Structures are given as structure tokens and as C-alpha cells.
Amino acid sequence: MLPPHAPNSLLAALPRSGYLRLLTELKPVILIFGEVPYEPGETIRQVFSPGTSLLSLLTLADRHLALEVGLIGRDGKLGVSASGGARPVDFA
What we know:
Layout: H1 9-12, H2 16-23, E1 55-61, E2 65-72
């Protein structure tokens, strides 16, 4: 069983040995409201595993209005496709 302080459900669901190997690579990140972790066309360089926060996925509607198309919380990840050698991000 993992320590109860694993903030993300996906991290908490990993086998203990896998979590402990990954733990050395994890670091807390504070994103400021409105900060954009990835822009369309950028290469994914980090994977975010929200614990007590939410990440909102936005796209442009009518070329100027932001439209929320997804929400990632403590049961998800942003940028997970980077682990499979992902190409640049394209949310369109």
C-alpha cells in the first residue's frame, strides 16, 4: 500500500515499487491562475499530476473566445502522452 499522502489517485494506484521509483522524479509545481503549461504545437516536456487543484483544458471558439473542453483533477494527468514519445501538443 502507498503512503496515504500520495495526492493524485493515479499515483496512489501504482504498485509500491513503481511509485517509489517514480518518486525521485516527482517535484511539486505551483501554477498561477491563468498560467498556460503548454501551447498548441509545443513539445510536451512535463507531466502534471494534480493533487488539490484542477487543470482546465481550453480551446478557441470563433478564433477568440476560450471554451473549456476538459477538466483534469486528482484522478488524472496532463501531458501523459509524453511518456510514449509524444509529438507536439495539438488541442484543436
